[in-house]
């Protein structure tokens, strides 16, 4: 039976179903519910803006967008967004997905915390960030029909999301603080670790080996 929440059909292709299983099995309920809400809110926000993302690619990108917080997926020390993006790209390619689709999903995940850029890109990339912004900071929430928001939260409860999400983000980046330079993740480190010295672009320029 096709699953629908708030009138939105949940993609049920083999890849989408497997993505659901992977995220459910490897992340805490907080991340699983957040990821599903990102898809649902992303669909709603995209619709209001006249965007038509591919539902399956949007779903896979939304489901994997925070999986890099749970465990690094590469031996390299890199941003958690890149870990998740790399994992999602391999996931799609291993299941016969096209290179174009895999790169689209990679970009949506890699840029989901980067302000100002995703919404100028492909609908799938834009919709992931739009969904993230609704669920994480409430951006655009007032534009969504309250009854649909209620349906989504009933299916994927928020619980103590604000506190637990910040903690989960910190837990996912605390051992690789250098990767947060120039990102919103540095804000999270500074919140939990008062002695954290946030690298500054000004310092990097002034301390460079150039004499002038």
Written overview of the protein:
- The chain has one domain (4-159): Orthogonal Bundle (Hypothetical protein af1432).
- The longest helix is centred in the N-terminal third of the chain and has 20 residues, at 29-48.
- It has 212 residues and is mainly alpha-helical.
- The chain has helices at 14-26, 29-48, 55-64, 80-94, 99-110, 123-137, 146-155, 161-173, 185-192, 201-206, and strands at 4-5, 8-9.
- Helices cover 58% and strands 2% of the residues.
Number of domains: 1
Which strand order does the major sheet show? 1-2
C-alpha end-to-end distance:
67 Å
- What is the CATH architecture term? Orthogonal Bundle
Query: Which oligomeric state applies?
Result: single chain
CATH fold assignment: Hypothetical protein af1432
Which whole number gives the mean pLDDT? 96
Strand portion: under 5%
Shape: globular
Keywords, please?
mainly alpha; 58% helix; 2 strands; 212 residues; globular
Write the layout of secondary structure elements.
Elements: E1 4-5, E2 8-9, H1 14-26, H2 29-48, H3 55-64, H4 80-94, H5 99-110, H6 123-137, H7 146-155, H8 161-173, H9 185-192, H10 201-206
Antiparallel strand pairs: 1-2
Helix pairs in contact: 1-3, 2-3, 2-6, 3-5, 3-6, 4-5, 5-6, 8-9
């Amino acid at each position: 039976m096709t699953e629908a929440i708030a009138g939105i059909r949940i993609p049920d292709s083999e890849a989408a179903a497997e993505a659901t299983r992977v995220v459910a099995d490897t992340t805490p309920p907080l991340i699983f519910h957040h990821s599903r809400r990102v898809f649902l809110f992303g669909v709603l926000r995209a619709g209001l803006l006249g965007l038509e993302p591919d539902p399956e690619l949007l779903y896979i990108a939304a489901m994997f967008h925070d999986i890099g917080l749970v465990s690094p997926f590469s031996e390299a020390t890199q941003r958690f967004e890149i870990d998740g993006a790399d994992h999602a790209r391999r996931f799609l390619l291993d299941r016969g997905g096209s290179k174009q689709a895999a790169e689209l999903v990679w970009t949506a995940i890699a840029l989901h915390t980067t302000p100002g850029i995703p919404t100028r890109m492909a609908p799938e990339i834009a919709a992931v960030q739009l969904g993230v912004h609704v669920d994480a900071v409430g951006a655009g929430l007032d534009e969504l029909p309250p009854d649909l928001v209620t349906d989504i939260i009933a299916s994927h409860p928020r619980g103590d999301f604000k506190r637990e999400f910040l903690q989960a983000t910190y837990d996912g980046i605390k051992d690789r603080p250098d990767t947060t330079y120039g990102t919103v993740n540095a804000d999270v480190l500074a919140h939990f670790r008062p002695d954290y010295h946030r690298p500054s672009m000004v310092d990097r320029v002034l301390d460079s080996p150039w004499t002038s």
